[in-house]
Write a structure and sequence with these properties.
alpha/beta; 2 domains; 7-stranded mixed beta sheet; 263 residues
């Protein structure tokens, strides 16, 4: 699958993978900053952003997309950074093709299975409930979403997916059908087995419940050479809440800064 992507900077390649309902646009500011030190690729994963849609949406397919993306761009190896769903995709890439992953960064997600998140269900219901054919302006859509999504952050996140198609009509970039049909699998246990013995940085938000101390043995079983860092004050959206702290940790781990920031 030919993925849409954004690229910043030059140097050692780093691939950033967004989470479910996200897209490369969410990482533009961070990618540009990281691009001052590396060649940064930020693809839209299948069924998201400007990449193609498919009825298939599982971690095997998503990981294979990234390996195909690397082939397409002549990347024999790269460091891979993934947030949430993208973190599990990054894990899958490392476990499937360990020699192609120089370093792995997992942001606020564990290989374990999760119950369906209330906010994910709310986002899908909101998208389903809004009849986009009725509206002529983005503001009208936002006003309608105000009725069903009370969180300003989630509403802004959803509106990132709104665009006009070739006929000038509003539509969602995300493949709502495919994500909804595969949401249980996306939330489930990482199905890819194996061991990645390269260096791994696991970053968790101090205010997030996505990674528990009880998950540490599970990380060790997949990634014996992992190190975990907690960023205080960060929710699951670490890159939005604490971008400076996240950037500093990545600079240390990826090799652009010789001094450790935290332990």
């Amino acid at each position: 699958m030919k993925l849409f992507y954004r690229q910043f900077g030059s140097g050692e390649p780093v691939i950033i993978l967004h989470g479910v309902f996200g897209m490369s646009d969410n990482w533009v500011t961070f990618g540009r900053r990281l691009g001052e030190h590396f060649s940064v690729f930020v693809p839209d994963q299948r069924n998201h952003g400007q990449s193609p849609h498919s009825t298939s949406h599982n971690y095997y397919a998503l990981a294979d997309d990234i390996l195909e993306f690397m082939d397409e761009h002549g990347l024999r190896e790269a460091s891979v950074v993934g947030h949430s769903m993208g973190g599990k995709v990054a894990m899958g890439v490392a476990l499937e093709a360990s020699r192609r992953v120089r370093k792995l960064v997992i942001i606020d997600v564990s290989p374990k299975g999760y119950p369906l998140r209330r906010e994910h269900i709310e986002i899908l219901r909101a998208m389903r409930s809004v009849d986009l054919s009725r509206f002529l302006s983005r503001q009208e859509v936002e006003t309608e979403l105000n009725k069903v999504l009370l969180s300003d952050r989630i509403r802004y996140f959803v509106l990132k997916n709104l665009h006009r198609d070739h006929a000038g009509r509003f539509s969602w970039r995300i493949n709502v059908d495919a994500v909804e049909e595969n949401l249980e699998g996306i939330s489930g246990t990482l199905p890819v087995k194996g061991i990645y013995e390269g260096p791994v940085l696991v970053i968790r938000g101090g205010d997030s419940n996505y990674i528990a101390d009880d998950d540490k043995p599970l990380f060790s079983s997949y990634f014996p050479n992992y190190h975990m860092v907690t960023i205080p004050g960060a929710s699951h959206w670490v890159h939005a809440d604490m971008p400076d702290a996240l950037f500093a940790e990545l600079m240390v781990f990826l090799g652009a800064n010789p001094s450790p920031v935290s332990t």
